């Protein structure tokens, strides 16, 4: 781990001989509800037991408003149990996020799980405004800078704030059906690692082969991060929501769904069967080489949790025998690696990928125009620069901005942000094409290639980006680089002028690594 932090959770992760156990708590809406009291009592029992190193506390899970996680976090730390605070990007802008991080650092809440977050759901007087000012990679970059001592300006002079000590976790989802969904998920994991992540947790899923796939990918790409496998125990209601895709990113395959429905006919509605399956998965994850597991599930009691852990310990020596009971993901899905017929898991050999078709005409036309007008070798770049900068300070400047907007609105559904990232994203606009405006790779919420917010109506932007880049052999662009957050001072202005004047993100030299490893790349060329 990169961060030098002495929290019990961080020490456990550093000790690769220890199998780290964490448990997820989900605060409810309200400040004094019975559910908050139940959570605190469960945390007290977990602390007394001593096997679980930390509990994570969600932030507005599912997009619904709930008690802020640091409130319970402070109370639970007093019980002697370490906590992990979920940091979601959906509800706050970068200033509010920085403010909260200062507060959490002062309260010694240093363990974080940094996520983009579920799309907001209806709250007070209707539907709230989705914020998503930062994506998870940009939030990690902010935290990396804060851990080094954030550079600020005080009274016009450069200064550095005292360094924070955050341990930054990230999520990764191997549970995607399509190549164009899965490969960008792994590419984003590489971006998160470069941005300073300290550990990873997998998304909810129940397939041993898919979970092993993540380990193979990390090993082959040199990602030396501790990783926890997600072990989730759904109740019947949540099982049905996951099965029909109502909880973004959480998938119950059809074969497992049928098995759970059969188990639900038992007097306990299948609860013991679900706990035993979770224990098997815990044992298999330990055998595969995971550094620990992250356990969760609605309404679980401490006896449930103790049963799961005891059963997992009993099963651990014969984990290989259990793999066959945990192979649920459809074989027709895209797999990153070839199947090993000996045990049903993966061989460390990348699976064959279909050959791409020809680049779409709109993509080819956009690349050609960009090459001519906005690259160092472009035949029309110099006159375009003279035109834009020459008009920028005249009365014709607003007309230039309007002309640009009309052209790009027709071609790219431009939202006139003034800080254009089309060249980095295969000439697809994230401000209009992504419900969360994400600039550094996909969120984990897509299903079968569809956006989590518009299922069946709008394809995930990054699925489309990947498909376009693959046609020119440059899909690897989604594995590297860093696009800084949108500069809102440029909103409704000419991005052409901002580009040539050196005011947009391309001039900031932020396309490479972040934190201490940050490097200044050249200004972007066409994909």
What does this structure look like?
By secondary structure, this protein is an alpha/beta fold. Helices cover 39% and strands 11% of the residues. The protein has 18 helices and 12 strands. The strands form 3 sheets. An 8-stranded parallel barrel has the order 1-2-3-4-7-8-9-10, surrounded by 6 helices. Strands 5-6 form a two-stranded antiparallel ribbon. Helix 8 runs antiparallel to helix 9, helix 10 crosses helix 11 and helix 14 packs across helix 18. The longest helix is centred in the middle third of the chain and has 18 residues. The chain is globular. The two termini are 33 Å apart. The C terminus is likely disordered.
Q: Count the helices. How many? A: 18
Rg is 24 Å
Strand order of the largest sheet: 1-2-3-4-7-8-9-10
Low-confidence stretches: 511-527
Q: Which percent range describes the beta-strand content?
A: 5-15%
Principal-axes geometry comes out as globular
Distance between the termini: 33 Å
Mean pLDDT: 93
What structural class do the secondary elements suggest? alpha/beta
Order of helices and strands: HEHEHEHEHEEEHEHEHHHEHHEEHHHHHH
> How many E strands?
12
């Amino acid at each position: 781990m990169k961060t030098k932090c002495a929290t019990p959770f961080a020490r456990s992760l550093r000790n690769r001989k220890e199998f780290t156990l964490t448990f997820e708590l989900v605060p409810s809406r309200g400040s004094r509800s019975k559910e908050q009291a139940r959570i605190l009592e469960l945390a007290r029992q977990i602390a007394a037991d001593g096997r679980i190193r930390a509990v994570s506390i969600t932030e507005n899970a599912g997009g619904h408003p709930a008690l802020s996680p640091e409130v319970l976090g402070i109370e639970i730390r007093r019980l002697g149990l370490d906590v992990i605070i979920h940091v979601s990007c959906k509800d706050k802008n970068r200033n509010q996020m920085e403010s909260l991080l200062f507060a959490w650092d002062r309260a010694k809440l240093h363990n974080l799980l940094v996520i983009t977050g579920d799309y907001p759901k209806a709250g007070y007087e209707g539907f709230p405004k989705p914020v998503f000012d930062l994506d998870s990679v940009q939030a990690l970059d902010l935290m990396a800078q804060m851990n080094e001592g954030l550079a600020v300006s005080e009274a016009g002079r450069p200064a550095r704030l005292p360094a924070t000590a955050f341990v930054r976790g990230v999520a990764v989802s191997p549970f995607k059906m399509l190549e164009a969904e899965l490969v960008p998920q792994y590419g984003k994991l590489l971006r998160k690692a470069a941005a300073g992540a300290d550990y990873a947790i997998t998304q909810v899923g129940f397939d041993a082969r898919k979970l092993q796939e993540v380990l193979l990918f990390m090993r082959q790409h040199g990602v030396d991060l501790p990783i926890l496998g997600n072990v989730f125990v759904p109740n019947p209601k949540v099982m049905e929501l996951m099965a029909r895709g109502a909880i973004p990113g959480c998938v119950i395959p059809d074969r497992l769904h049928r098995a759970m429905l059969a188990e639900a006919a038992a007097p306990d509605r299948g609860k013991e069967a679900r706990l035993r399956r979770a224990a098997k998965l815990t044992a298999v994850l330990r055998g595969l080489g995971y550094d620990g597991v992250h356990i969760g599930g609605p309404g679980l009691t401490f006896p449930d949790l103790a049963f799961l852990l005891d059963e997992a310990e009993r099963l651990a020596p014969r984990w290989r025998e259990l793999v066959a009971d945990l192979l649920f993901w459809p074989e027709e899905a895209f797999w990153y690696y070839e199947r090993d017929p000996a045990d049903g898991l993966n061989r460390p050999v990348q699976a064959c990928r279909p050959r791409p078709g020809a680049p779409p005409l709109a993509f080819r036309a956009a690349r050609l125009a960009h090459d001519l007008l906005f690259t160092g070798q472009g035949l029309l770049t110099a006159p375009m620069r003279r035109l834009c900068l020459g008009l920028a300070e005249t009365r014709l400047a607003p007309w230039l901005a309007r002309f640009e907007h009309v052209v790009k609105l027709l071609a790219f559904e431009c939202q006139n942000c003034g800080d254009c990232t089309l060249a980095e994203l295969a000439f697809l606009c994230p401000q209009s094409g992504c419900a969360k405006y994400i600039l550094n790779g996909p969120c984990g919420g897509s299903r079968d290639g569809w956006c989590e917010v518009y299922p069946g109506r709008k394809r995930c932007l990054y699925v489309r980006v990947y498909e376009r880049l693959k046609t020119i052999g440059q899909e690897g662009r989604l594995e590297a680089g860093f696009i800084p957050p949108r500069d809102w001072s440029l909103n409704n202005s000419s991005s052409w002028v901002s580009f040539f004047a050196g005011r947009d993100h391309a001039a900031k030299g932020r396309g490479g690594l972040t934190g201490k490893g940050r490097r200044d790349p050249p200004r972007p060329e066409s994909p």
